[in-house]
Design goal:
Elements lengths: L5 E4 L2 H14 L5 H13 L11 E7 L2 E8 L5 E3 L4 H14 L5 E5 H15 L2 E13 L12 E4 L5 H14 L8 H11 L2 E5 L5 E7 L6 E8 L9 H15 L4 E7 L3 H9 L2 E13 L5
Helix pairs in contact: 1-2, 3-4, 5-6
């Protein structure tokens, strides 16, 4: 595999024209690329913040797309599944075009190969930030007993609460808010992308988000319950409601990611019918990798 099998572009339309069919061929493994590029298409290229434009890469050989990546600066590189030869060619390509790589997200096999190649090409050091598992919904199994209360879509009156909870969620998972939180909340409200579970008094106690449908798939995210309200079944109840509505709306695949260090969430999602698809890893780089 040669590094010149890869090319980079800042043109989203060009990227989707070349790689769109490839991404749609495995909507589960390519869920993040599909949902992020759809968000960029709908909300603009700076939907995730940052002063620099997003970059997109495609690996094409013998007229066939075999891999792709994207990056929304200042965030990590996100890569579709690749084999060892392909990850080495990708590392050489990124060095050749001078593309900064502060970190990478991909399947475990992809990241392990890329980390070795990136260190060899750049001398950078790596740190494993998180292990994740991708799940796909099988047969939905509502939890019993269902906690008191009811689901409802978040609306305009909930904007401030969405903003506050999204910030709390990103802090809880050790991440950074991506882009304009107010714009994120407005976008989610506009397409019905957040559902609350509220107690019998009408007070929201948990929330569950869902991405727009792209290539027949949606992804559940974020799911958040304030710490003092956890352990009461609210997250499971609202996730079941959102998952059920996604299926009713015609989604062919309902997906979600978990942090493998969070045993509670992994048990919960399997209990309500989600089944493992693949394991992913998140790495950060330091040293010459930031050039």
């Amino acid at each position: 595999m040669r590094s010149d099998d890869w090319y980079v572009t800042e043109d989203l339309d060009r990227f989707l024209a070349h790689a769109g069919g490839f991404l749609r061929s495995r909507p589960d493994l390519h869920t993040v690329a599909l949902t992020v590029t759809e968000s960029l298409r709908m909300r603009g290229l700076h939907a995730y913040g940052g002063d620099e434009p997003p970059v997109f890469g495609v690996m094409e050989r013998d007229g066939q797309v075999r891999g792709a990546y994207f990056r929304t600066p200042p965030y990590r590189l996100n890569v579709t599944p690749l084999n060892a030869d392909e990850t080495d060619a990708l590392a050489a390509h990124l060095v050749a075009v001078g593309q900064p790589v502060p970190g990478i997200i991909g399947t475990r096999e992809t990241t392990s190969g890329f980390v070795r190649s990136w260190q060899r090409h750049t001398g950078a050091t790596s740190a494993l930030r998180q292990r994740q598992r991708l799940y796909r919904l099988g047969s939905l199994l509502p939890p019993r007993p269902v906690p008191a209360g009811r689901p409802r879509l978040a609306g305009e009156k909930d904007r401030d609460q969405l903003i506050r909870w999204y910030r709390e969620f990103t802090e809880a998972v050790g991440d950074h808010v991506a882009g304009d939180v107010e714009a994120w909340a407005d976008h989610r409200i506009a397409y019905g992308g957040i559902t609350f579970w509220e107690d019998p008094d009408g007070t929201p106690v948990s929330m569950c988000g869902v991405t727009p449908t792209v290539a027949g798939q949606v992804r559940i995210a974020p799911v958040y319950t304030p710490p003092h309200l956890r352990g009461r079944g609210y997250a499971g109840a609202v996730t079941v409601e959102v998952s059920r509505n996604a299926l009713r709306s015609g989604a062919e695949e309902v997906l979600l990611f978990t942090d493998l260090s969070n045993a509670t969430s992994n048990v919960l999602y399997q209990r309500i019918g989600y089944r493992a698809v693949a394991e992913f890893e998140v790495y950060d780089f330091s040293g010459t990798a930031d050039r």
